[in-house]
Design goal:
Elements lengths: L6 H18 L3 H6 L2 H17 L18 H11 L5 H4 L6 H11 L2 H13 L4 E4 L16 E5 L2 E12 L6 E7 L10 E7 L5 E6 L7 E2 L2 E14 L3 E2 L5 H37 L13 H31 L5 H26 L1 H4 L5 H7 L10 H15 L1
Parallel strand pairs: 1-4
Antiparallel strand pairs: 2-3, 3-8, 4-5, 5-9, 6-8, 7-8
The structure holds flavin-adenine dinucleotide.
Length: 396
């Protein structure tokens, strides 16, 4: 077993880490104060710098201008970029575009690649993924109300979606809709590319999540598809394969998320340690760091982060070398395990900061609000635990 990180990756990670520390973390106070949309000019400038350093789109194919890193390499990158909420966006590997790029690359026609994939990898446009519905359980998405009915050369889409992350300002959505109602549940839906300027694509609102509706990339939209008509050539992959492709999209996506969360954990731990050694809490000059309970939190956090990191990199290695099917259990295990570590570490970091932790004077309260969702999206904890436990028990 070789745990060594190649020289190439050490250089890349070092450069990215320096950029995050020097260029992005100083922008965070502004990010917390302003609407994301108002920060775009500054972020564009940072993106330009990243492109000049040839660090743009680390996980995307070389032929489209990315760095072409494999999943383990991108896992390492994702941890470093995850240290700031701006990291993935500025380096052009943010969700949900990253997942959309993967499936467009694998299933897109040449025309779809030219129209949607190329400008997406370049960062000229953004996209969203529109599957979850207001009135249907996202945990069991085969229960889907949205339909795409053929009419002449077109599909006519009707349905109500929400949590279409980053729809605000996106050029197109990849929409999941039932095209084959007569088939078995997992073969009923298809993915269809819908440009957001299509009549009938109605962005109702950016949902207020944890007290903030957000804007542009940092938002989650409710979308009403009302007789939304797109040509049938906008079908992505074979008809009825929506869930098959969605599964493929989620495997690597979970590695990206988990490693991003580990970056958040690592930064939170470092902040917790710095605060603990600086904060004097007794007349004799002793700091929080002298208290055993804090030491215990630091040690537990360090152990849990390392366990989460190794589990995730191993799952990435398995996807890369044995395929997503072989790595199914590992993908489920990391999804709920790392999300749990994330919550615990952020919570401890916030607690050590006391009242300061609740303010937006540090990034911790943002992490606390924003990352609660980790236990819900891309499969809620309970769903992953249930499905992996069933498979483990079956084998036993
Ligand atoms: C921040 C955020 C971003 C998102 N981004 C996107 C996006 O870009 N595109 C998109 O399409 N969707 C997105 N989603 C939606 C997300 O995928 C769904 O919220 C998720 O799949 C859960 O579906 P639901 O909300 O309908 O919950 P439900 O399906 O109603 O489940 C509610 C709860 O019930 C429990 N539960 C469910 N099933 C079981 C079970 N079998 N056994 C035991 N307990 C169970 C779980 O605790 C679950 O949290 C996002 C969600 C969030 C919070």
């Amino acid at each position: 077993m070789d745990f060594a990180i190649s020289e190439k990756m050490q250089v890349i990670i070092g450069m990215m880490r320096e950029f995050v520390e020097k260029e992005l973390i100083p922008l965070e106070p502004e990010f917390l104060r302003k609407e994301f949309r108002d920060l775009l000019p500054e972020l564009e400038e940072k993106r330009r710098m990243v492109k000049q350093m040839e660090l743009w789109a680390p996980n995307h194919p070389k032929e489209f201008g990315g760095m072409g890193l494999d999943l383990v390499e991108h896992g390492l990158v994702s941890e470093v970029l995850g240290r700031s909420p701006l990291g993935h966006y500025v380096f052009g590997c943010q969700a949900p575009d990253a997942g959309n790029i993967e499936i467009l690359h694998k299933y897109g026609t040449e025309a779809q690649k030219a129209q949607y994939l190329a400008p997406l990898v370049e960062g000229k446009i953004r996209s969203c993924f529109s599957m979850t519905e207001v009135d249907m359980p996202g945990s069991n998405p085969v229960m889907m109300d949205t339909t795409a009915v053929k009419d002449g050369e077109d599909y006519v889409i009707n349905g109500q979606k929400w949590y279409s992350t980053a729809a605000d300002g996106s050029a197109f959505a990849i929409v999941m809709a039932v095209t084959n109602p007569e088939e078995a549940p997992h073969l009923r839906a298809s993915m269809i590319i819908v440009p957001t300027d299509t009549p009938g694509f109605n962005l109702v609102r950016n949902i207020s999540v944890m007290g903030h509706a957000g804007s542009d990339y940092f938002s989650h939209a409710e979308i009403l598809y009302q007789s939304c008509r797109v040509p049938q050539k906008n079908l992505l992959g074979p008809e009825g394969w929506g869930f098959v492709i969605a599964q493929e999209r989620l495997g690597p996506g979970r590695i990206h998320h988990c490693m991003r969360w580990i970056g958040i954990c690592q930064r939170s731990l470092e902040m917790m340690c710095r605060r603990a050694v600086q904060r004097v809490i007794a007349m004799d000059g002793k700091t929080l760091a002298t208290r055993q309970i804090i030491q215990s939190w630091v040690a537990e956090s360090a152990a849990e982060i390392q366990a989460a990191r190794l589990m995730t990199l191993h799952a990435a290695w398995k996807i890369e070398n044995l395929g997503a099917k072989e790595a199914r259990d590992d993908i489920s295990l990391i999804k709920f395990y790392v999300a749990d570590v994330l919550q615990k570490v952020i919570d401890r970091a916030l607690q050590v900061h006391g009242g300061l932790g609740m303010t937006d004077d540090t990034i911790i309260a943002f992490f606390y609000r924003h990352e609660r969702a980790a236990r819900i999206y891309d499969g809620a904890d309970e769903v992953h635990k249930m499905s992996v436990a069933k498979r483990i028990m079956k084998r036993a």
